[in-house]
Amino acid sequence: MPITTDMLKYISIVVLILTLMCCAGMSVEPKSAAVGTGAIWSPDPKIIDKMREECWNVNPFLLIPQKAAQCCIDIMKGVGAPPEAVAFSSAMLKNRTDTFCYMSSFRKISIVDMANIVCPFKDDSTSDMVLLNGQPAIVWINDLNNLNKIDLFSEPEYGKMLRRHNEALLWPFTSGLTGVKKLPGGGERYMFNFRLLNGCEGCPLSGTMTVAYDFSADGHFMGVTLIELVTAE
């Protein structure tokens, strides 16, 4: 029997239905579970000493930071740290491969959440902050990859600051969250304060600046924005 145009249309519809049914049955990779208070860890100082001795106290020429950090995570497991805490430290290591960090506190906010982290073997600071449960899952507040996108030299106030403090430089360690503001379209703005110092960590204060970390309504990180720059008297 010859195949008619109507038969071809029927066959096409059947194939389309079968394809849709097949796709509906396919597994979809689930979204990562949200991080919460279960990831908090409060280790005994002796555990940190054990990590330092077994993982970091090696010849500097032989030290591989990622390997040393993984050694710390293995010790976490061995001493019975909560699985959520181990998973969080592992995620932090994948996000930033040069050191070991763990969560010391957690704050539920809104579209994204915030955590304080401790990085006991990090040279420049032992405490940091991250925004969690958005896209990407971890956004470091003190990350120079974000902060350096702010062009201070285009700001008239920075010129004024340099006339008073000729070595004024951003010191990339926030003093904390100062506010959360709704954005058009349902997103949110998370604002943090930073210090500018006159040349070094122990040098006089040159000024302060407020930086916004913006997220869309569905939690996607949209970048940073300079909100305010103030010169110290």
TrEMBL record:
It comes from the Bacteria. This is Secreted protein. It comes from Candidatus Magnetominusculus xianensis. The lineage of its organism: Bacteria, Pseudomonadati, Nitrospirota, Nitrospiria, Nitrospirales.
